[in-house]
Amino acid sequence: MNISDVSEVIDRPERLICPPNLPDFVEGMVNLRGELIAAINLRTLYHLDPLGNSTGKIIIFNQDERKYGIIVDSVDAILSLPGSEAARLPIMGQGAAGDPAYQDVSGTLFSKTNGALDRPLMKMDLKSVVSRCSGRSEVMTELGQAPASPA
């Protein structure tokens, strides 16, 4: 994802706020300094097997003047890759084209270390992810950035 869209990365809280009628891919809401932010579980959204634990990180990002969070297994590094340190990969085959995760990837590349390709990276299109969530649930159009109710 583009780092300019990310506002912060937080530890996943042990418990999330779970109002009724949340779509299955929204694991709950995070109260982040008075803002309720939807925590989207990409594993559920893309029909992947669950990890089986409640640890991980939540990447808070801005899209269309709203804040969202995506639950990720971990954040290993934040990379800034100038063109000289990245090699674009061609899109391989059409077999996965119907896969929602494949459709939400805006690019694939390899990072380079000392001129050698060392690891593949996929760049998520956050606008596409939010659009997919909104298309699957009317509730998502109401989530995004809601004030937290006083405790």
Helical stretch count?
4
Q: At the first level of CATH, what is the class? A: Mainly Beta
H/E series: EEEHEEEHEEHHE
Give the overall shape.
globular
Query: Total domains, how many?
Result: 1
Uncertain regions: pLDDT < 50 for 5+ in a row?
145-151
What structural class is derived from the secondary structure elements?
Answer: alpha+beta
Helical content (DSSP H or I, runs of 4+): 10-25%
C-alpha-based Rg, rounded: 17 Å
| Percent strand | 35-45%
Calculate the mean pLDDT score and round it. 76
- Seen as an oligomer or otherwise, the chain set is single chain
End-to-end separation: 34 Å
Name some characteristics of this structure.
151 residues; alpha+beta; OB fold (Dihydrolipoamide Acetyltransferase, E2P); six-stranded mixed beta sheet; three-stranded antiparallel beta sheet; 9 strands; disordered C terminus
Architecture overview:
With about 150 residues, this protein is of the alpha+beta class. It has a single domain (about 5-145), classed as CheA-289, Domain 4 (OB fold (Dihydrolipoamide Acetyltransferase, E2P)). The chain is built from 4 helices and 9 strands; from the N terminus they run βββαβββαββααβ. Strands 1, 2, 3, 4, 5 and 9 form a 6-stranded mixed beta sheet that branches. A 3-stranded antiparallel beta sheet has the order 6-7-8. It is globular. The termini are far apart. Residues about 145-150 have low confidence and may be disordered.
Any chance you could write out the topology, listing elements then pairs?
Blueprint: E1 6-11, E2 26-32, E3 35-41, H1 42-45, E4 57-63, E5 66-72, E6 86-88, H2 100-103, E7 105-113, E8 116-124, H3 126-136, H4 139-142, E9 146-147
Parallel strand pairs: 3-5
Antiparallel strand pairs: 1-4, 2-3, 3-9, 4-5, 6-7, 7-8
